[in-house]
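Our platform keeps sequence and structure together, in a single record for each protein. This encoding replaces a full spatial description with a residue-level series of whole-number codes. We quote a single record here, exactly as it is kept in our systems:
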Amino acid sequence: MMQTGDVAANTDHSRELRQELDVVEETLRLLLQLVLAPVKLASASSLETAAVWLLEREIMHWLTLGPFTRREVIM
């Protein structure tokens, strides 16, 4: 049977690992956006279409992040 200290240490480790994975996921999403943005912008039919796409992308990015993972909230 696991000791209480072992359970607490395991929980802390799991929490730290989840936070690290969240950072990696956010970084990969940002990288994907940076790679796709020039292609999407270059293929836009007008400046307005490109501007709307950038705004939608930014909104969706912020909606997918929880308030406690945003660096502006943490700092």
The two ends are 40 Å apart (CA to CA). The longest helix spans residues 4-43.
